[in-house]
Design goal:
Elements: H1 16-21, H2 30-33, H3 36-43, H4 52-61, H5 74-89, E1 93-94, E2 101-111, E3 117-122, E4 125-129, E5 135-137, E6 146-153, E7 159-160, E8 165-166, E9 177-180, H6 190-197, H7 199-208, E10 213-217, H8 227-232, E11 238-241, E12 254-258, H9 264-267, H10 274-282, E13 290-299, E14 302-316, E15 327-333, E16 338-343, E17 346-349, H11 352-372, E18 379-385, H12 393-400, E19 409-414, E20 426-430, H13 437-447, E21 451-453, H14 468-473, E22 478-483, H15 490-501, H16 516-535
Helix pairs in contact: 4-11, 13-16
This protein binds zinc ion.
Length: about 550
């Protein structure tokens, strides 16, 4: 899963307790974890999954040999070679542009802090900011060498035309840098709030208002990871897709992420305090907007390099003469964060859950279809994308330049960090209410004794934080599906702990507890949903009232 602000995050907390809690999953017999419900519903068929074969794939993809699978790295190439072997042995058709591969070209950007600086200027008095301690540059945008600009606090910095909501109205923003919090007031529906917080949409409105840069103060109530970890790998390169067509933040000269504990200095003399604002943000209340007293002075030196990587695309052809020209797409990102700052002597960010786990589901489902020889009416497309951790870049490239006929992809299911760390009682389905796919996944899950729920934490913006979002933006109805928890349940604390301690840290590795039965049941649901989508007479449609319907092709029966 993509961190919204940074590419690379590190633990600096002591993880002695983690080691003490960790149990190798191999110590749990998958058979002994099968419940009678599993047996009644699915274990009798040859497509039932029990988690064992899934875990075997995870073990390969998340091994130290793969060096954390950073985009463009030898480790990711090795993981891709392994995946290609599996695709070949399953007899899948290569549908990349070069066999299974679809090359994707990136520019990598690395901040050179020795030659960079940030300062606040109060009436001519320069107050240097500590890079790392106070704030960090984001190289997601093409930083200008220097920026000197007044600051304006713009609340959430959101412009949502559908609701007549405009945090920029009434502010003079010409040639200014805005200071904002991520998030949105509680009354704004989740899909709208997520969409307008995406980098491109946000920048469109800010640029129109004359803004030249953005300082984001992280919301302490919605940070997946503490600032110390955010700061530790800030010199790790970010990446951008090469080509002007992909530059969503053209004209953004400055992007800075501010440590919330140090952000009071931005508000000195404004008549407002950080504390007051953070209390409002925490409760997702509307925010005031006002000019700030200090100006920002920034110098940024960035090392740029060209990096090559690739998506992998494979097809299992359908059997219906007409419907085989349509695809049900199962996607997962294969890339992760690579090698970085060591934590307890471990430098390899294995990304076992993020997202060897999702890639392994694809391989396992592929192997199962091969074994069952079940022929479906529509074709299935399996896409292993690169560059997700760099900002959903591989999927953006693939959906902009698909290697199958445009309009032929009828549905996308994306799997990213589905977290089978507790028994599977409830599935969290992102996009549940948006299309016909919601009802289908509900039926399939319920037939296996699993309930579904919409995103319980819409403020985390998960629906736009993984690859399904690029399919959605190209009109393809999509879902992202994860093992879920009920609000207020003990499981909720487990998920919270997982994010705090393992997310984007070297301890997201093979030495962590996983629930094989949960992974198996999850795969049963994905497998069942793909069969329904592939064999259903009609294509799934966006709901009439779905915000995302705007991206769907206009003509019914569009092909
Ligand atoms: Zn991630």
């Amino acid at each position: 899963m993509k961190n919204p602000f940074l590419l690379f995050i590190v633990i600096v907390i002591a993880s002695f307790t983690l080691v003490a809690q960790a149990q190798p999953p191999s110590s749990v017999s998958p058979e002994s974890k099968k419940t009678s419900a599993d047996k009644n519903s699915s274990a009798a068929t040859d497509t039932a999954f029990n988690g064992t074969s899934w875990w075997n794939y995870v073990k390969v993809l998340a091994s130290d040999d793969m060096e954390g699978r950073e985009t463009g790295s030898a480790g990711l190439r090795k993981a891709q070679e392994y995946v290609v072997e599996q695709l070949k042995s399953a007899g899948l058709e290569p549908v990349g542009s070069r066999s299974y591969y679809q090359p994707v070209r990136f520019e990598s950007r690395q901040i050179v802090e020795q030659q960079s600086s940030l300062a606040l200027v109060h009436n001519g008095q320069v107050e240097p900011l500590a890079l790392g301690g106070d704030a960090i540059f984001s190289t997601r945008v093409d930083l200008a060498p220097s920026v000197d600009a007044p600051l304006v606090f713009a609340g959430y910095g959101l412009t949502i035309p559908e609701l007549g909501h405009d945090d920029l109205s009434g502010l003079d923003l010409r040639d200014k840098v805005v200071v904002i919090f991520p998030g949105a007031p509680a009354e704004i529906p989740g899909a709208l709030a997520s969409h307008y917080q995406s980098a491109g949409e946000r920048w469109k409105a800010l640029r129109k208002a004359g803004v030249v840069g953005v300082i984001t103060i992280l919301n302490p109530a919605a940070m997946d990871i503490p600032w110390s970890r955010i700061s530790a790998n800030r010199a790790h390169p970010s990446m951008a897709l090469r080509g002007a067509e992909f530059d969503e933040t053209a004209g953004e000269k400055l992007a800075v992420v501010f440590n919330p504990e140090k952000a009071q200095k931005l508000f000195e003399g404004s008549g407002h305090s950080l504390q007051e604002l953070i209390a409002l943000v925490k409760d997702r209340k509307p925010l005031p907007r006002f000019p700030l007293v200090p100006t920002i002075r920034a110098k940024a030196s960035v090392n740029k390099k060209m990096v090559d990587s690739a998506n992998l695309v494979a097809e299992l052809p359908g059997s219906d003469p007409k419907l085989k020209n349509e695809y049900v797409v199962l996607s997962a990102h294969l890339d992760h964060l690579g090698i970085g700052e060591p934590i307890n002597g471990d430098r390899i960010y294995n990304g076992a859950m993020d997202n060897a786990s999702g890639s392994a589901v694809l391989l396992d489902v592929i192997a199962s279809f091969k074994k069952s020889r079940q022929r479906l009416k529509r074709s299935l497309l399996f896409v292993f994308v690169t560059g997700e951790e760099k900002g959903l870049l591989g999927s953006r490239y693939f959906t902009t330049h698909p290697t199958v006929k445009p309009g032929s992809m009828i549905a996308n299911i994306n799997i990213d960090m589905f977290l089978p760390i507790v028994p599977l009682k409830v599935l969290t389905v992102y996009g549940l209410a948006e299309s016909d796919m919601g009802g289908m996944v509900r039926d399939v899950a319920q037939s296996l004794g699993v309930q579904v729920q919409p995103d319980p934490e819409p403020q985390r913006n998960s629906f736009i934080r993984s690859d399904q979002y690029n399919f959605i933006r190209h009109g393809v109805p999509a879902l992202a599906i994860k093992v879920g928890f009920e609000q207020g349940s003990p499981q909720q604390a487990l998920f919270k702990d997982w994010l705090t301690q393992r997310y984007h840290a070297p301890s997201d590795d093979l030495d962590q507890p996983v629930d094989l039965a949960a992974a198996g049941k999850y795969e049963d649901i994905i497998h069942g949903l793909m069969i329904r989508l592939a064999d259903n007479a009609g294509r799934p449609q966006w709901k009439q009232d779905s915000f995302f319907r705007r991206y769907a092709p206009m003509a019914p029966g569009f092909n």
